[in-house]
Amino acid sequence: MSLYSKFVFPRLLDWGLGKPDLDQYRGEVLAGASGETLEIGFGTGLNLPHYPRSVKRLVAIDSELMLPDRVRKRIEAAAFPVEVVHADAQDHLPFGDCSFDTVTTTFTLCSIPEPRLALREMFRVLKPSGRYLFLEHGLGLKPRIQLWQKRLTPINRIVGCGCHLDRAIDRLIVASGFEVTSLDRIVAPGFPRVMGELYRGTARRP
Fold this sequence. Notes:
The chain has 206 residues and is α/β, with parallel strands linked by helices. It is built from seven helices and seven strands. It is globular. The relative contact order is 0.15.
């Protein structure tokens, strides 16, 4: 791990993804969480204040430990128990089949090297009656934006520690076995269009 990825990037990530406009979107999508909940890509814990009280317990998965002091304070302020598990979501998740009522990702699928593998693991551990809630950025709707996203992704993968700008999030989710039951396409204010094309939605096991 480089000094940039260990010390600089986590602070940039926490600042950039902690903006109030994104907080609104987080709250809207995470309002559907309940019961035993699994979050893939915990990051710096920015989602914690936005989960409803219907969440009984949160298991948070991340392959990297970012800003541990800041994360600890956010966990202590949570209204439910939080267990952080350091694991790679695209490998076998350390949980049995059909273990969770809710699975969530926010700004995560862009940086997982093999997102379909991670999504298949999410599918496996989600109960048949459960829901997958997602808020992700990815491939835009307009060809001009898509062109620039494809051009800039090789650079952004370096600056953003693996972040892809040009992934079609809804197609990845469907290709992994999920049925998308709701999807909103949003352009996040205050972000360059190539980074601000958002997918907010819900999916389930068919």
